[in-house]
Amino acid sequence: MRHSTLGVLVLLAGATSAPAQDPDVDFAAEIWPVLESRCIGCHHAPHLRADGSLKRPKGRVRLDSVEAIRASKRGKLIVPGDPDGSLMFETISLPADHDDRMPPADQGAPLSEVEVTRIKQWIAEGAHFGSWESAAKGTAESIGVGSGARPSKTQPPITALVFTPDGEAVVAASQRGLQVHHWPGLTLVKTIPIRLPNLHDLAFSPAGDRIAIGGGDPSEAGLVNVLSWPRGESVRQVGDHDDSVFASAFRDDSALLSAGFDRRIVLWDLQAGTALRDFKGHSRGVTALCWLPGRKVFVSGSLDQSLRVWNADTGELIRSLSQHTGSVHSLALRPSTDPLPMVASAATDRTIRFWQPTIGRMVRYVRLPSEALSIAWVDEETLVASCRDGKLRVVNTFTVQIERELPAVAKLGYSLAVHPTDGSVAVGGLNGEIRRVVVRQGNR
């Protein structure tokens, strides 16, 4: 269907339960088939067209689950028990030549008199969904894997890096998709083109059998595609952000956080593909996420210059940390058994700040000669930062001194990953450049 502010597809958005009774109209058997055949083609989860562009549901309204219907961004446009007060009934019963009639004229004939009558009766009975929860297909539309990378003389920048769980390869994200490089030689093993624009983030699941890729269209849509690993097949898509996703973080193998430039943070059920909880509070885009030990609390970083500490189970904002004077774009948890976890944050103010977020304390900070674009811990006392000038800074986190400056990439060290055992790091920069930098020899 074409978008209309009074479209039939948005009019289910506010459906709630009426007093308990046995309704005569069965939503799953009588109402859903009408929506599925006449509406769902334009109003389901964001997905990719054959040309690789992202298509959002018309009017940003989804009809593929009860949750999506009730969470419609167009508001509550159905009044359970009152068909005449419901715009849904009004628009589907308009004359066939009326501009606001749904479905639109270019999408076929109006709903039949029987269909309109049954929808009216369904609303009158309280707009019950019964046991119906989501579309019969069950899974979200898959972004999928393309058939080949577009050749380019100038390679796109490496926007994210992550080591495979066994440490034998590093996965790099760019607009060419995912490239898997053998470690430490950095020979290209394979390329997995991803038909998702503006890739920004990579994260492996705790079991290491899936990888999440975040991205999307600026000011339009943000998604996370979850692939099986090492096969690289799309198994789940979650998102529904209104801007690009810049960070994702697995809570466990069945739940994932995503955060985007739309200021939202969402906890997703990866089994059902539905949102468990929405965390709102940042005044600008969210760029970084970090789980604390136990994974009941997490920290977010934002362009609004703050870190926020959240209770993942309740959605409660525990505290805000606002000492940065520039946009925060990277967070990293210290590997430690200390009962007070420590998180490092990097911002455009050229500082890296060290926090004990559970008690709201900033412990110390270091100012760098060049802005850190990505940070990671090598061990409990060593943190590395890939910087705007292309250099890698090695910071002693106890003395907050820069111990070394090492050459890494030509310019703009966008991304960084620390190898799990060999004391080296991968740094990604412009023009598809990836470099191995040795920080220390072997394990300490």
Report what the structure shows.
This protein has 444 residues and is mostly beta strands. It folds into two domains: 117 residues, no CATH class; 279 residues, Methylamine Dehydrogenase, Chain H (7 Propeller), CATH 2.130.10.10. 8% of the residues lie in helices and 37% in strands. It has a four-stranded antiparallel sheet, with no helix packed on it. Helix 1 packs across helix 4.
Name a few traits of the molecule.
Methylamine Dehydrogenase, Chain H; 444 residues; 4 helices; 4-stranded antiparallel beta sheet; mainly beta
What's the quaternary structure here? single chain
Count of domains: 2
| Poorly predicted runs | 1-22, 136-152
Global mean pLDDT: 83
The CATH topology of the largest domain: Methylamine Dehydrogenase, Chain H
Structural class: mainly beta
Strand order of the largest sheet: 3-4-5-6
Shape: elongated
Largest sheet: 4 strands, antiparallel
CA-CA gap between termini? 61 Å
Any idea what the CATH superfamily of the largest domain is called?
YVTN repeat-like/Quinoprotein amine dehydrogenase
Q: How helical, in percent, are the residues?
A: under 10%
Can you identify the CATH class of the largest domain?
Mainly Beta
Beta-strand percent range: 35-45%
- Computed Rg: 24 Å
